[in-house]
Amino acid sequence: MTSPEQQRNEVLTHLTRAVILLKESMDVRLVAGTGTNICYAISGARDSTGVATVSGGLVVQGNTVNAAGACGFGADVRIATILLTALKFNPDIRCVATIRYTDAVGRILEDMFLECCTIDSRMRSPGVSTMDWGVASCCKEGVPEAIVDPGISKSASVVHLFGEKPANVAGNIIMLSNRIIRIEL
Question: What are the φ/ψ torsions at residue 20 (nearest 5 degrees)?
Answer without folding.
Answer: -60, -45
